Each structure stands twice: as C-alpha cells, then as structure tokens.
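User: Batch of two.

Assistant: Item 1 of 2:
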Amino acid sequence: MTSLKKILSEKNPAFSGKSAESLIMSGRVKVDGRIIDKPGAEVPEDAQIEITEDSPYVSRGGLKIENAFKDLGISAEGKKAADVGASTGGFTDFLLKNGAESVTAIDVGYGILSWKLRTDPRVFVFERTNIRKIDASDLPYRADLTVVDVSFISLEKIFDKIIEITEKSGEILLLVKPQFEAKREDVGKGGIVLERQVHKKVLGKIIRMVRDYKLSVEGIAFSKVKGAKGNQEFWIYAKKTGKVLPVKDKSFKGVKKTALNYDKIVSDIVEKAHDFFIGSKKWI
C-alpha cells in the first residue's frame, strides 16, 4: 500500500506535487473504479488508476450531495443556503449550480475554499469560523436550507447552532459520519466503522436528537459515495416545523404514519447501504 499521490505521480509524470494533489481533490481520479479524493489515501500499488473528465463540481462533495438531493427529493431553487463545513466547496458549488440564490460558506479552516467560489458574489465566505461559537446575527441571513458536513465532532455538539442559523421554516440536511458519532470502542482501526449494528445505533441517535429539537424527519438515505477512508455515511433530511412528525421517506410510502417504526426504517436503510457496496474494497 502507498499513497495515491505517489502512485499518480509515478504513473503519470505530467502530474506531480501540487498538480497531483489538485487533480485528486477535484474528484477526477478513480482507483479500481472508485473515486478517491484524498491525496494521502493508501491504495494497493497494483491498483488501476483512471483520470476522468473534468468533474462538474470543485470537489467530490458535489457528487455526494447531488445523489442525496435526488434520493430525498430536495430542491435548492431560489433558496438562501448555508454550507457548514464547506471545505473546498463541493456542496456550495452544487447548490449554486442548482438554483440557490446564495450560499454562506462556513469552515473552521482557512484558504481551503475554491478560488472560483471565493470570488463568486453569491458566496459569503466565513473562514476560521467555529460553528459552535458563531452568532447568527453575524451572518448575512438565516438560511432557508442548511447543509452540514463536519468532521472530528459529533453533530450533537453543534446542532443547536445549526438550528440557530436556519430560518423558522427552514430545511436541514445532515451528513452523518459514524466514526465521529459512535462510541470509541465501536470505531475500528484507522477510524473505520464497519459494523451494521453500529451504523444503526448512530443513525438512531441522530434521529432522536433531531426529533427532540422538534424538527420533522423528512427523509433518511445512505450516501452512495463513501467517505475518504471507506466509511459508510448517511443523510438525514429535516425541517423546522415546531412539531414532531413522522418520516416521509420515499422508500417507505406504504408505511402508515400511525404505525411508523423508526428502528425498522433505520435498519432497512443500513441494510440497503451494505447491499449497495457489496464487493467494494475496504479502503474505498
């Protein structure tokens, strides 16, 4: 096993150093048929490396959220959005390309957001900004739609702030990363969570949190693009209504609201995720 950046540079002399990193981070490099967007990802030395055509988004995050919007029936059209954990800006790019009026891009890091987005007048950039310490009054608006992709912190620690920066009747899309939500003993070597039961516990925990804040859970889905180290991730789509309402996930149209069982829904989603990725390599 060796780093993707090193293999790419060795197999394609035209790409080295920063150019190799940029190419990988743009989501244009496939390893054995799977997109890998982390230059330091460890891959087999005999892996098949493929460089794809230009991605429609500045990073693989755009492809990730594109699938979520399709699966959950979400629209960004005409909405003022917020992207918490914006990083390079894949989510922001997708939102703008799909009709968002503007995006407030929030990230604790600095200098990461794509230059194309940084200079776009529709994007309000808040770098070196810890969402836990943010004041909604410092932002240009409360978002109609807030999308969240954060690492090294549980959603439980920031959800009150997510709600604060979102409009009264706004929508929230959470990317749930089990490795940052599970108990320490449930996280495997290298920060990988493989056990279905742990995925189910994590999803159940975040759903309870959302409902405790009196938001309606509008949909649950699994991400069809895995995390950088191969972690399975999940989406929870919620709305601020002031009422606790049942899930309206397209996959469960036949379930009566009065008989709706969250544990069963979560179990089915996790099983679908694992079935979808059967045969994929652990490092993907």
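Item 2 of 2:
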Amino acid sequence: MPIIGREKEVKVLDRLYRSSEAEFLAVYGRRRIGKTFLVHEFFKDKGLYFEITGSQSAGKLEQLKNFSIVFGNQFGKKPPIPASWTDAFELLRQTIDKEVNGRKIILFFDELPWLASKKSGFLGVLEYYWNHYFSRNPRIILIVCGSAASWMIKKVVRNKGGLHGRLTAEIRLLPFDLAETEKFLKAQKIELGRKQLLELYMAIGGVAKYLTYVKRGKSSAQNIQEICFEQGAPLAHEFHKLYISLFSNYTKHISVVETLGKNRSGMTLTELLAKTGLESGGSSSMILQELQESGFILYTHDYKKRKKDGKYRLIDEFSLFYLTWMKDFFSMNNLNKDYWLRIQSQASYNSWAGYAFEGICLKFLSKVVHGLGLDIVASNASGWECLPRSKEDRGAQIDLVIYRTDRSINLCEIKFCGEEFVIDKEYAEQLAYKKSQFRKITKTKASLFTTLITPYGSKENSHYLSCVDYQISMEALFD
C-alpha cells in the first residue's frame, strides 16, 4: 500500500532526502499510528537502508543479538554479537565508510526507547557517533523513532546533553483526521457514508492499524462489532497493551484515564488527584504531561477563569470507547454478535455519542473555525460553565466558546443526532437562556452569536431563525 495522506510529513522526508548535508530526524507518535510504515515506505529504495527495531522488555544482550542479525541480513555476512553498543556502532561506521557509490545512507533506529533502556548505554553512544562521525557525512540520514512520545521529547527532542540542538527535523505523527481516514479507507476500496465514517472514528479514532481491520461491504456498526466485541476481536485487549507500550508507570496513567472516562465534563487537577489518589507534585504532573503529549487528554480552561483552574478531559476516542462499552463487556464474558447493534438503540449510546462527537470537534477545532469562516478573527477558545447558585437557578453550560478579535464571541452548541436537527420551542428557550446567562455572568460587551454544530445541520424553522446565528455540519470536519 502506498503512503496515504501524510502530505506534510512526506515533504519533510523528501527535503531530508534531497539535502546536501547530514540529517538527523526524530519521529514520534503513539503505538500503531504508522510511524515505521511511513519511514520504511519512503526510504526503502532510496539508498542503503539499515533498519533495526528495539524489542520491549529485551535486555541489552538480546538487542545486540538482534543488531547482529539485522546487520548480517543487510550486508550479507552476520558478524559476531557485539559486546557493547560502542562495538556495534563502530562496526556500522566502518561498513558504511566503505560505501563509495554516492547513494544516500539511511540509518533507522525504530522504537528507540526500548533500544536505549536503562544501563544499555545506547543513547550516549548514539550521541558520540552522530557528533563525531555521522554528522560529517553528507550522505547520512539518521532517523530515530519511538512510540513513547514523552520519552522521545525529553531524551531526544529537548535533550540537554550531547544531542542538544542536533536534530535537523522532527515529525510528531498524529492519528489520521476524518478526511485522511476517508482517503485511507477508499484506498482499500472501502466506501462508507460520512455519518458512518464519523461513527467509526468515534469508536476507534484515526489509528492506521485499527483502520486496517475495517472490512469492505460492512456497515460501521458491523465493523465495530467485529473489531471490538466478537471472540478474537483484534482490539479486544488493545487498551492495556497501548498504555503498557507507552508508559513505564502505566497503571497510574490508566488510573487517570479511567477516572476521566467516568467524569466526561472534565476534572480540575484537585478533583483528579482526589479521585485517583495521586499526590500533588512532580510525579503526577509528569503523568498528566505524558498523557497530554501522547494525545490522550486535553487541558482547557473556561472563559475568564485562571489557567490553573482549567479541566482535564479524555479525548482519545478508543480509550473512551473501551471504558464505556468494552471493559465491562469482556469482564462479563458477554459475547453477543448483535451487541453493538442493540446498544445503538439505548439512551446510554446517545450520551456517549454526544460526548465523543464533542471531543472530535474540540480536537479538530481548526476545522470548526474554518467551517465557520473565522480563520482570520478567531483568537482563542474554551468551554464555559456556570453552576447553579440556588435551588431556583438552573446554571448553564456551553460546549465551546470561540473568542474573536472583532469584539464578537461564538457560543457553540455541539449536538450529535442521526438526522437533520430540529429546534423546538423548549430548546430555543434553552439557547436564549444560556446566551443571557453568559452575558450576565461574564459581563462581556462583545456581540454574541449562537452557533450549532451537528452531523447533518439544523432545519431552519422559526425557532432556528429566532435564536441561531451560525451553523455547520460534519462536512466541515472532513474539509
């Protein structure tokens, strides 16, 4: 399969390939996102291509054995197992120095966090050979790659030692967005309507490997059933494998994610620490930072509130889906071929779908802004909530508030539904109430525009015309 999407990343790789200097690239992104595929497919036939992948939980000796095997496969003669990474790199240096045909030399070290485990000495050796040899050879492209985003950022991207400032490029590979997901599936001759694509994305996200499990000729509901719920389902045990592969203290990361999964409106740091039992300070801050850098959680703060009073929210689609539907399903050994089809008729489905759709809109905020035609004037965004102050007070909550430089604010309501949304008198009154409460409590003098974001748009009846200023459909998310 050719590389689908990833236009920006391919441009980076092409620039490195055409460079007349030595290049050092770091690639990072979550498990199964397509990092290895991207690098391999682009560089495999563009010169001498040497690739070694670290093995999880393997010791230094085992990793060096693997190096010996890979070296032998690449250069035709298997060497003795190197005694150290210094010996391994020296062997590699001497061999590539004999390359005289002028072609590029691509050295790809995949799953670097596993290669550079504690006491392995790998990272120090890598630093030495880049600084003293590889960086002086204009034909070399050195690529390091890892799934543990926080490790890669700390140890490589923001390295304060011998690799400080040495990178010439970095790629943070994210899951496919909706448009890329559509393109990826079409390349496999799978064509689903955009509503079904959206529903599929709400369940498994845009992780390339997950999307390879989607079968042609089946609806999104049928695919979700087979991928997640049937005996031997490929994603049945993915949740724990995912976190184990990314974080050394994964039980604490899972605890945070599970807690946020139960509190969908988000949680302040104080609330989160109280629920998880984590202590305030460096370790908990690191866990939250790692989850943010890996794209699992999002930190937002409400309009005119201090940044430190913001909330953490779970935005990883598969994690939310697993915690909502799969975790208890498998603990009860409740195998049922019609499970997901039956779930879709329940109120709990609508609750999850609404939250998942809202999360996608927040994740792809730039597409929402573009769809509303606010690219030039949009300056910031947040949520907003006003808790009831008395028994008579209803309180108010707005899903998304977009602040603009033209003294205007869009108050966005995000609604998931299976057909064109219809505003009735009661809902119109709710929208008007939220708008009045926002102005009253924030004391803003900006123009306020009520905005609807729905899959199919909203019917422009009299109630719509009385209270809605903007609307966009899911089509904006595919732009």
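The chain has 21 helices and twelve strands.
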